[in-house]
Amino acid sequence: MEFSGPIAELFPSFNSISEIRVSESNNNAEYSGVADITTTSRAGANSYHGGIFENLENTDLTAGNPFTGKPKIIMNNFGGFAGSAVRIPRLYNGHDRTFFFGSYEGLRLPHETPLLESFPSADMRNGNLWSYLNGQGAQAGLSGPLPIANYDGTPIPCTGPTNCSVPVSPVAANAMKYLMPVPNTGSADSYQNNYATNFPAPI
Q1: Tens of pLDDT along 103-161?
Q2: Backbone phi, psi, residue 33, to 5°
Q3: pLDDT in tens, 170-203
Q4: Residue 170 in contact with residue 163, Cβ under 8 Å?
Q5: pLDDT of 22-60, one tens digit each?
Q6: CA 97 to each of CA 32, 40, 133: distance values in angstroms, whole numbers, following the listed order
Q7: How many CA atoms are closer than 13 Å to the CA of 158, on its beta-carbon side?
């Protein structure tokens, strides 16, 4: 198998590799590039030989994430290999002539990915925009350069953290209730990186 071959991503199981040769310069014309990685698979022998293996990694053996806790992971990398001379009783003996070798490797990896996302804060869900407007440079409650108004142009009364509210429409309230998770980290007025979770990743 060659790296620049028609199936570039194909790579044999570790136990089926006999040799890996790396050519970095002055390659012969048979290679399609300046650098080349050639992998040679193992062959059978006169005697039976083989083996099995299992590599395990799980949640108990890994470190946790300081922001989202310890994500779940259960990795099983397993397989086996075998080879010998081809023998058919009373018909054919392949000693020193015909051989076989085969290998199998499987990977099972259910795991979670730590996520840190941003969703409307508890204050924003209740219509309190004080922290959000100040964070966007609107200078709520002050005589800043950006006017603070509703979509229809009516001013939003913003004189303090407890007096900077707008009506929340039923549609927006239902959208936040059913489509957006409730923040689980940070203060009530935090609207950035306020939701941490371990998301199940594809196997």
Answers
A1: 999 888 888 888 888 999 888 888 887 788 777 766 554 544 455 666 677 777 676 77
A2: -140, 175
A3: 898 898 889 999 998 888 788 888 888 887 766 5
A4: no
A5: 877 777 777 767 777 778 888 888 888 899 999 998 888
A6: 33, 20, 81
A7: 24
Token pair 């509703």 is found at 150
- For the record, the structure tokens of 108 come out as 């099972």
Distance CA 94, CA 85 (A): 5
